[in-house]
Amino acid sequence: MNDLTQQDATQNNSLDTLSQLHELLVSKSLDRVSDLLTEMHPAEIADFLECLPGKSRKKIWGLISVDREGDVLAHLQDAVRSELLEHMQPQEVAEATKDLETDDVADIIQDLPEGVQDTVLLSMGEQNRLRLASVLSYPEDTAGGLMNTDVISIRADVTLDVVTRYLRRVENIPEKTDNLMVVDRENQYLGALSVIDILIGDPEASVGELMKEESGISADLSASEVAKVFEQRDLVSAAVVNGNGILLGRITVDDVVDVIQEEAEHAVRSMAGLGDDDMFAPIFTSTKRRAVWLGINLATAFLGAAVIGRFEDTIQQLVALAVLMPIVAGMGGVAGSQTLTIAIRGIALGHLNKSNAMALMLKESAVGLLNGLMWACVVSVIVVFWFDDTSLGFIIGLAMMINLIVAAFAGAVIPMGLNRYGIDPAIAGGVLLTTVTDVVGFMTFLGLASLFLVS
């Protein structure tokens, strides 16, 4: 309980500081803003910058001390970081990143224009340049792109006493070092030795006796798969190896948390067809990105309208149909969205694949059938009392049941089909599902009404 209270207090203090900064910025008290910035964590400064429009953002960036610029850049979203880097000279970037971990430097370098990247790399020391080159040789969204090459490796045949004396001579032990990596003469990864075992173990015991034998994470493994491995094994750090098992570096849990957060934000934005990382991205950039999905939505809306147009005469003869149509389509949309969310989550977590796809489709179709029967009865009774028309109540109930079954089935099939063809189901799934539920709902309801209610 005390931990929770302390956490809440820290969060409230952070929010109060951000509010105070906004107020000081409005009142143009830049000296006081500068003082507050020196007291804040780099991640908090990054959050504040992301909350500001372009002009204010540049003004605040100018108040941040040079020795903190690198840490702030490392915590910024890609879009905001790229904007700030555009106005920095290569030498400034090299100076700001000189004390950062290799994986953080790699993230920043990749946001620079190609010509500027070379200039920054040449301004670095040879050792740092070689370390960075090994990370940059892998895609950003893989274990190799996430790894930090700063790692302490030891041999299995030495004693804990030798390891302890070696650690005392190491000038800079990498942050978040919970394990030492055990390798053979060819630098092939064998396992990990916990720092706790070094502290409490028998000094005469060998590393090989106490180390935990395990295989490292392949450098080519995707970032999302890396996050899954950390979650399943409750890891704080893990070794990264190449195809031959040679130790390349390590990944720590803070990098994995960043991956999880980025994927969650991407999923939320994608569900609305948004691609902006930056809340205050340029107007024309945001307009261009969103216009594409608005256009697709408009096209699907016209498709639904075309279906309704086919039954214009039917609607004119029975006005109640126009009143009730949105109910059928709306219920189908909600039912389909529920299944769509489950399927997208299953794909993202790797829980949904060819082997269990059919089982999910059958299960969701059965759920759609049962929900369809239940709510069809409810709606039918309401419509009968409302319009005093038993036939109309039966028709809307049957149409709703059919649409809920189709919606549930489509909610499972659409994301799997999109994923198979390399299309993000979080972006396109909702648009396609809405089209299916609208078209099927209108077609079924109006079609049945034309057959049985209108002469």
Report what the structure shows:
The protein has 455 residues and is an alpha/beta fold. It folds into three domains: 2-138, MgtE N-terminal domain-like (MgtE N-terminal fold); 153-271, CBS-domain, CATH 3.10.580.10; 283-452, Tetracycline Repressor, domain 2 (Orthogonal Bundle), CATH 1.10.357. The protein is 69% helix and 6% strand. It contains 22 helices and seven strands. The strands form two sheets. A four-stranded mixed sheet has the order 1-2-3-4. Strands 5-6-7 form a three-stranded mixed sheet. Helix 7 (90-97) packs across helix 9, helix 17 packs parallel to helix 22 and helix 19 (320-349) runs antiparallel to helix 22. The radius of gyration is 29 Å and the shape is elongated.
Describe the structure using short key phrases.
22 helices; 3-stranded mixed beta sheet; 4-stranded mixed beta sheet; Tetracycline Repressor, domain 2; single chain; alpha/beta; 7 strands; elongated; MgtE N-terminal fold; 455 residues; CBS-domain; 3 domains; disordered N terminus
Write the layout of secondary structure elements.
Layout: H1 2-26, H2 30-39, H3 42-50, H4 54-61, H5 66-75, H6 78-85, H7 90-97, H8 102-109, H9 114-122, H10 126-136, H11 143-146, E1 153-155, H12 160-169, E2 179-183, E3 189-194, H13 195-200, H14 207-210, E4 212-213, E5 217-218, H15 223-233, E6 237-241, E7 247-252, H16 253-271, H17 283-309, H18 312-317, H19 320-349, H20 354-387, H21 390-420, H22 425-452
Parallel strand pairs: 1-2, 5-6
Antiparallel strand pairs: 2-3, 3-4, 6-7
Helix pairs in contact: 1-2, 3-5, 5-7, 7-9, 8-10, 15-16, 16-22, 17-22, 19-20, 19-21, 19-22, 20-21, 21-22
